[in-house]
Amino acid sequence: MASSISAKALMLLHSRGDRCLRFPLKNGVEFEHSENLGMITRVRATGGNSLGTDEDKDGSEGVFGAINKKRNKVLALQKDLLQQVVEIKKLVSSEKSDNILESEVNSISYELGNKPLTNKSSPKNASTRSDNAVKNQNENIASPNSAYSSKGSVKAPFVGTNGSFNEAKGGDAKTPPEMASYWIHLNEKLEDKAHETIRPDTLLALFANGTEHLNLEVENQESVSESAPVESEGETEIPPPLAGTNVMNVILVAAECAPWSKTGGLGDVVGSLPKALSRRGHRVMVVTPRYGNYAEGQDTGVRKTYRVDGHDEEVRYFHAYIDGVDFVFVDSPFFHHLEHNIYGGSRLDILKRMVLFCKAAVEVPWHVPCGGVCYGDGNLAFIANDWHTALLPVYLKAYYRDQGLMKYTRSVLVIHNIAHQGRGPVDDFFFVDLPEHHMDLFKLYDPIGGDHFNIFAAGLKTADRVVTVSHGYAWELKTSEGGWGLHRIIKDNDWKLRGIVNGIDNKDWNPRFDVHLKSDGYTNYSLETLSSGKGQCKAALQKELGLPIRDNVPVIAFIGRLDQQKGVDLIAEAIPWLMSQDVQLIMLGTGRPDLEHMLRQFESQHHDKIRGWVGFSVKMAHRITAGSDILLMPSRFEPCGLNQLYAMNYGTVPVVHAVGGLKDTVQPFDPFNESGLGWTFESADSGKLSHALGNCLLTYREYKKSWEGLQKRGMTQDLSWDNAAQLYEEVLLAAKYQW
Ligand SMILES: Nc1ncnc2c1ncn2[C@@H]1O[C@H](COP(=O)(O)OP(=O)(O)O[C@H]2O[C@H](CO)[C@@H](O)[C@H](O)[C@H]2O)[C@@H](O)[C@H]1O
């Protein structure tokens, strides 16, 4: 046996849970590993005194002293690193370079061992480490009881112990022997990494399961960030408060993630909420399918096989580290070339895709090294999104937690839209690969179709917590109209439901920095330059779309999916009245063919006033939001709605149907008190829409001061994700301590 053991071997042993093995470490110390506990239980001086246990107190001081010294060294090093982060951020912002965004600073990697700081990363070339270096290590970690491994039977996948090297027992304080082994492990880890780059968050991850030491480093971090607000392009950005002792490992799992894949608001949320959680100090990952050949993602070399519909399907895992978040892309021929048709194909095609994706996602924290270190399954919460990933909480429970694996991992399911549920005939159950006694989770009685199979139902019952994207929608979900057949299940689980209003990405959707406003006559603008800047954008939009360029005509916009939800038909009914007004109407959308046809018809019938852009164009969505005066959102239901938030951030006044998140976020204008943010109407009715829009147009034309007030109030709200991230953190914590 060698006289020392590497962190790699240590992880390996830990992951395999070998029975009471003893290994000598450097500095005359050895550790003992117990299979039963699946962790290092004892550390000894080679003289024979065991350390950190009650019966062997005598020998403990020397080695603990050494460990403490190491620990203090690491803390000092980390403090130094954090200081350097702040200094680099200051340096970058002082250059005020357009193309250096804060995101790049966040992805700067730091070398350990007092080496000079080097910038090796950018969002375009985001992965900073040699993931191949950890590839072999990872391959060697036996997929602990890979529930779906090609080698194991799906029906009996549960043997052995969990392989997570950083599992926190109960997620709480460590016992002295654990602390000792922990610091020895850390020491080994750092020695291993002495010649590699290591990210600050990886360093944090090494601390993530302790308590005392964690408090210390968080205090250090807080003192640094409080004293030095981050500047971004001349604007002082106060960093959000840190999670402190509540810091967790968080993995968002979703079928789409902007900017790589997006069909609507879900993609935006998954692209931005994780960054806000990371800013609070959590270690955050997004797992999403690799639909295309994304430049940022690097092959980790990790390959795993999962069973879908009786076949073994191999997945590969790609990885990128951007803006403090690990993005893991699950690659399989199942997903290829679907970036423009994510939910396309037959019902069974989609179901099989999501089965494979959820199976592959649940094991990411075991297999995929991020920053050189797997997340492990202690102190970990998954956030699944909508029905596409609602199988994840079910798999987590049925295949892992109920079998004594991933015992401390929790799941939160977010409802972005209950109208899509993953329904099918009861026999679809056999595709999800679960023992038959789980069938009742999925069975739902429908007054029209009788019993059917429903994935969302199973996810809602199984998840530890459920979030939806506004308070209004949380209430609506419990009504028979709003719950779309799931209201009873949601009511039964009301205790674990919470509404949290979405935020917006304040860099992507900010008129000051918007990259889509930098050409073709558009311009960036802010509150100070609102009138001139927005005016210029309006003229550029009219020019680009071939509408008469007129400053005094109100430009009304609609952006969204063309379907029943978004209430496009209400706009259609209001067209005769609207065309009697001096207005311009711009509609951007894609969806139901009959509604797409309708948009084209409107444009040809009223060519001097209407533009109907059929298609999905992120650039046009930004330009229309900037160049319009009014945004129309007559949605029949709207769980949150992002477009009205984007609109207000751009000084564009919303007129909305008062439902769900629209009601929560658009306070009606009160002309007597000069308060409010826009106009609302109470029912999905074209007459009501015309009435509200009529009042809005009157204010635009006749009451300029009131109009400016509406714009300014909209622009000065704090719509950032930071508030929502703090509330998500509360939910994650509630889940963590739920048994
Ligand atoms: N043709 C087009 N071209 C370019 N961009 C287009 C577009 N059509 C839509 N978009 C963009 O897609 C997003 C739509 O987001 P929404 O939140 O308004 O609705 P969606 O119904 O997709 O999301 C669901 O999830 C979100 C997130 O939780 C909830 O806010 C919402 O209420 C719920 O229905 C916006 O970024 C918008 O600009």
UniProtKB/TrEMBL annotation:
Keywords of the record: Amyloplast, Chloroplast, Glycosyltransferase, Plastid, Starch biosynthesis, Transferase, Transit peptide
Pathway of action: Glycan biosynthesis; starch biosynthesis
EC code(s) of this entry: 2.4.1.21
Top EC class, one word: transferase
GO molecular function: alpha-1,4-glucan glucosyltransferase (ADP-glucose donor) activity; alpha-1,4-glucan glucosyltransferase (UDP-glucose donor) activity
Region (Disordered): 112-153, 220-241
Gene3D superfamilies linked: Glycogen Phosphorylase B (3.40.50.2000)
Record-linked Pfam families: Glyco_trans_1_4 (PF13692), Glyco_transf_5 (PF08323)
Family of this protein: Belongs to the glycosyltransferase 1 family. Bacterial/plant glycogen synthase subfamily.
Xref: PANTHER family: GRANULE-BOUND STARCH SYNTHASE 1, CHLOROPLASTIC/AMYLOPLASTIC, STARCH SYNTHASE 2, CHLOROPLASTIC_AMYLOPLASTIC
NCBIfam families, A to Z: glgA
Protein name: starch synthase
Organism whose genome encodes this protein: Sphenostylis stenocarpa
Lineage per the UniProt record: Eukaryota, Viridiplantae, Streptophyta, Embryophyta, Tracheophyta
